[in-house]
C-alpha cells in the first residue's frame, strides 16, 4: 500500500502553535490556553477526516499518534495527551458535524486565511495516507473548507493540485531499494529495520519540517513516501 504523508507546499498544522498566534483577536486568554484550544479543534477535525472513509487504518493511527506526541512537545505538557486522545475517540465515532466544528474553530481562533489554507493542506495529507482519496473524504474536506469560509476557487485549486501531485508521487517510488532507503544492511533484523523506520519517520514527519523552504519540504515529501514504501515492503517480506 502506498502511503503519502505530505505534499509540495505543505506548511504543517503546527506552524501556528509555534509562531502564528499573533493573528488571534483574543486578549483574555493566555498563550498556553490558545495553543490548547487550537490543538483541540485540530484533533476534532482530524478524527472526522480519519474516519470519513469508514475505518481508521493502521497508517492513519500511526500518523495520529505522532500528531499527539508533537502536540505534547509543542505545549510542553505530556499530560494533555490522554485528554486529546479521548477527544479524538469521541469525535471519531460521533455524528458531530465537521462543518460546525470548522466554523466554531474559525470563530474561536480568528486566524488569517493563509493559516486556514494550511490547515486544509494538513487534512488533505491525512486523507491521502492510505493511498486513496475517495468521495467521503472529499465531502468531509469540503465541509471543513466551507466551515473555514474558503472561497470556492481556492478550494478547487487545492483539490486539483493535490490530486495531480498524488499521481506524480505514486510514479516515483516503483523501483526503490528498501534497504538503501531505510539505511540498513540486507541482513538486518526486523527490529533494526523497525528502529530505523521510526527514527526516519520522526525526522521527516511533516510536523518536523514546518519552518523549511518549499524546496526542502518537497524533498522531505518524497523521502517520507519512500520511507513508508520501503518499510511496507520489508514488513511484508518478514511476515
Structural summary, described in words:
- It contains eleven helices and no strands.
- The chain is mainly α.
- α2 (31-50) runs parallel beside α4 (80-93) and α6 packs antiparallel against α7 (135-148).
- The protein is globular and about 55 Å long.
- It starts with 14 loop residues before the first helix and ends with a helix.
- Mean pLDDT is 76; it is low at 1-29.
Intertermini distance: 15 Å
Order of helices and strands: HHHHHHHHHHH
How would a crystallographer describe the biggest sheet? none
- Please, what is the average pLDDT? 76
Radius of gyration: 18 Å
Which stretches are low in confidence, meaning pLDDT under 50 for 5 or more residues running? 1-29
The count of helical stretches stands at 11
Provide the structure class. mainly alpha
**Strand fraction:** under 5%
What proportion of the residues is helical, as a percent range?
55-70%
Task: Jot down its keywords.
239 residues; mainly alpha; 11 helices
What is the topology?
Layout: H1 15-19, H2 31-50, H3 58-75, H4 80-93, H5 98-109, H6 113-128, H7 135-148, H8 152-172, H9 178-182, H10 190-204, H11 214-238
Helix pairs in contact: 2-3, 2-4, 2-5, 2-6, 2-7, 3-4, 5-7, 6-7, 10-11
Brief write-up:
The protein has 239 residues and is mostly helical. The protein contains 11 helices and no strands.
Amino acid at each position: 500500500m502506498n502511503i503519502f504523508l505530505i505534499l509540495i507546499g505543505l506548511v504543517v498544522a503546527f506552524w501556528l502553535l509555534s509562531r502564528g498566534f499573533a493573528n488571534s483577536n483574543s486578549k483574555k486568554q493566555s498563550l498556553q490556553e490558545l495553543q490548547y484550544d487550537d490543538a483541540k479543534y485540530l484533533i476534532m477535525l482530524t478524527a472526522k477526516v480519519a474516519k470519513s472513509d469508514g475505518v481508521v487504518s493502521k497508517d492513519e493511527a500511526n500518523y495520529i499518534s505522532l500528531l499527539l506526541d508533537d502536540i505534547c512537545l509543542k505545549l510542553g505538557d505530556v499530560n494533555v495527551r490522554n485528554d486529546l486522545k479521548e477527544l479524538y475517540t469521541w469525535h471519531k465515532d460521533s455524528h458531530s458535524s465537521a462543518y460546525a466544528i470548522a466554523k466554531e474553530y474559525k470563530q474561536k481562533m480568528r486566524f488569517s486565511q493563509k493559516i486556514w489554507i494550511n490547515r486544509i493542506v494538513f487534512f488533505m495529507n491525512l486523507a491521502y495516507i492510505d493511498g486513496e482519496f475517495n468521495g467521503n473524504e472529499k465531502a468531509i474536506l469540503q465541509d471543513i473548507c466551507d466551515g473555514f469560509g474558503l472561497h470556492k476557487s481556492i478550494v478547487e485549486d487545492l483539490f486539483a493540485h493535490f490530486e495531480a501531485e498524488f499521481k506524480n508521487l505514486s510514479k516515483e517510488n516503483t523501483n526503490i531499494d528498501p534497504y538503501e532507503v531505510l539505511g540498513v544492511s540486507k541482513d538486518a533484523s526486523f527490529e533494526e529495520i523497525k528502529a530505523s523506520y521510526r527514527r526516519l519517520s520522526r525526522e521527516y514527519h511533516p510536523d518536523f519540517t514546518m519552518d523549511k523552504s518549499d524546496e526542502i519540504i518537497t524533498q522531505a515529501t518524497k523521502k517520507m513516501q519512500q520511507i513508508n514504501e520501503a518499510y511496507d515492503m520489508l514488513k511484508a517480506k518478514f511476515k
